[in-house]
Write a structure and sequence with these properties.
Helices cover about 40% and strands about 15% of the residues. With about 350 residues, the protein is an alpha/beta fold. It has a domain of about 130 residues. The strands form two sheets. Strands 4-3-2-6-7-8-9-10-11-12 form a ten-stranded mixed sheet. Strand 2 and strand 3 form a beta hairpin. Helix 10 runs parallel beside helix 12 and helix 12 crosses helix 13. The protein starts with a helix and ends with a helix.
Length: about 350
């Protein structure tokens, strides 16, 4: 009731300001991705028909960002979206929604993934499959962040996601994170293998300004080694415990992730064992996703047993009073199930 009233009041305010709803997403409007190979993109989402990853600049030199060029490219996309034209690369994306979008020129979401090297060799990693793990074309991102901050394109409220490759082995990583904290950035997401313990991540967690996502994809060292290509299961478990200890009381800044991989862990037993391990460790927030290559094999015909696995994960989270976040492809499976269920009534 109150939510409906709040939404109505919000809609009235937008209407009075002359704004109209149109289909877009927060990445199209205010997102930027510093990708590897000197490429700047709109987003990294690729689990849909258009395959996403719209390129803003494919010749970035890593020294100075042409903000006017990037803004011009973004504004073209925004204007097209306002006129009902969505890029072909965005076709079918689950993140598109009909909403009121402001006309401000800034970045609310920044993804840093400008290096690909890693300390694992996960069987589901596209970079592993393409033999693309290396340190080539890696540049110092800190001056670029300062440039954006000085230009008021980002601020303390900007959401930063730091990925890779493996973020913690990047030479400037700790310096980068401490710099973000000094700037007052308070919404930082780290995607990590958890093998190398990071004191800068620990500090971000202690200050309640960062959260870490660690994929273990299993509950045993044997299966972990098969999937991740490294004999570091017990080290990662110990590091998860250390990060949990850094959390403020009541916070959920340590997220443990399970990626469903065909022929490895795609069954209820492995999921259940993983849930029980996470509960034993004291993890309060979990995430589930699906191997992108396997998902693309579905061709929009999702096997029933995959849907059942996602539903099983939802049920187990509810039974064990744990927060569960369904990542991109798992979310698509779950939303497809809900849509199908609604249409049967």
């Amino acid at each position: 009731m109150f939510n409906k009233i709040g939404k109505f009041c919000s809609d009235i305010q937008h209407f009075l300001k002359g704004r109209k709803k149109y289909v877009s997403c927060h990445w199209l409007e205010h997102g930027i991705v510093f990708d590897h190979a000197n490429i700047i993109r709109v987003c990294c989402e690729q689990s849909h028909e258009g395959k996403g990853r719209y390129v803003l600049d494919d010749k970035f030199n890593g020294i100075w960002l042409d903000i006017n060029k990037i803004n011009s490219e973004k504004e073209i996309l925004r204007l097209k979206a306002r006129n009902g034209q969505i890029p072909e690369s965005c076709k079918g994306c689950q993140f598109l929604k009909n909403d009121y979008w402001d006309e401000g020129i800034y970045f609310s979401h920044v993804l840093l993934t400008h290096w690909t090297n890693c300390n694992t060799r996960c069987v589901y990693c596209p970079a592993v499959r393409d033999n693309a793990l290396n340190d080539e074309n890696v540049y110092n991102i800190i001056p670029i962040i300062d440039q954006l901050f000085d230009a008021k394109m980002i601020n303390e409220d900007t959401y930063f996601s730091v990925a890779g490759g493996e973020a913690t082995i990047y030479p400037e990583f700790d310096k980068l994170i401490y710099h973000l904290l000094t700037l007052g950035i308070h919404n930082i997401n780290f995607n990590s293998s958890g093998i190398k313990y990071s004191h800068s991540i620990e500090q971000a967690i202690k200050e309640n300004k960062g959260e870490i996502v660690i994929s273990i994809d299993s509950a045993t060292a044997y299966l972990y080694n098969k999937i991740k290509g490294t004999n570091t299961f017990h080290l990662v478990i110990d590091n998860i415990k250390r990060y949990i200890q850094a959390q403020q009381i009541g916070e959920k800044k340590v997220i443990v992730k399970f990626i469903l991989v065909k022929g490895y862990n795609d069954n209820n037993k492995e999921l259940l064992d993983w849930f029980m391990l996470c509960k034993k460790l004291g993890v309060k927030k979990l995430a589930v996703d699906i191997d992108i290559a396997w998902f693309n094999e579905f061709s929009y015909k999702i096997p029933d047993y995959v849907t059942d696995l996602v539903l099983f994960a939802k049920d187990m989270a509810k039974i064990n009073n744990l927060d569960l976040h369904l990542y991109d492809r798992a979310a698509i499976v779950y939303n497809s199930y809900k849509k199908k269920k609604r249409n049967t009534f």
